[in-house]
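In the lab's daily routine, each protein ends up as an entry in a very long ledger. A line of letters takes care of the sequence, but it says nothing directly about the fold. The fold becomes a row of whole numbers, each drawn from a learned catalogue of backbone shapes. The protein below has been through that process, and both of its lines are reproduced in full:
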Amino acid sequence: MKIWDDLSEVPNDWPESVVTIGVFDGVHRGHRELIRRAVNRARVLEVPSVVLTFWPNPAEVVKRGDPPARLSTLEQRLRLFAELGVSATLVLPFTPELSQASPEMFAGNIVAEGLRAAEVIVGENFRFGHRARGDVAMMTEVGKRLGINVQGVHLLTADRDGDAISSTLIRRQVAEGQIAAANRALARPHRVEGIVVAGEGRGREMGFPTANLATTPYAAVPADGVYAGRIVVDPYGDAKVHRAAISVGTNPTFDEDITRRVEAWAYEEDDLELYDVPVAVDFAELIRGQEKFSSTEELVAAVDADVAKIKTVMGEQVR
């Protein structure tokens, strides 16, 4: 998949293409449906498929004081786009200047001229241009003048409660610890990425050395508790996957510890050296909420019980 970091990088001889547009944070099931439609339509027309996305999330620029949590890093998004068969992705830098662009300028200069869009496929709630003034109807109207066919796609609904799948819904589910529901909407485990840094060393002393994660900015960290999941070491290189017990919270058993952390223990490995290594932590299922224990011995016993449950969740034989 070709990756362009600015409109100026699109080749002058780039052919007509089928374009889908969005932030696509999380690349959830609804996003995947849009992207698959664009890819399939491009194959029918025998032209490239293009994802037009933005970095950072426009809401981080427009709502500086209250940015939404990020369900995925840019690297993860690009990896997922490529897996869906996209020909090229334009990562458009979202700046205050771009936020002032009129819908007509955005559609004309970027979509029509920059990407040579023959067709545009977007979700029915698609908004664009200054103050999000543009919608599917406006894109369709502008598209007629520019020779672009525009399709607005109905949103998918969640399996159980009928809510429309959206990044906003998934952020709420993650924040509330509803990881199983979030994973269904994402069609993959929710992931938090970062670099392993030194912690207090208490876990190692008690027999379960944890990797303490310095998360990427604005990461959507789940609610406090213990989770089943995996550690992926060097996720964009020579990825190595280890089943893990994951702790999110402040370690209330130790009163002086008020720092909220994401820690993961690869309980099948004794010799992992992960300091300063990039890792991804994939969350599979919530095991229990955060608890305060009266002693270190009680905490160790709870961790042993957690691991037994985690092994069951992860499909392992418990001995």
Remarks:
- The longest strand covers residues 278-289.
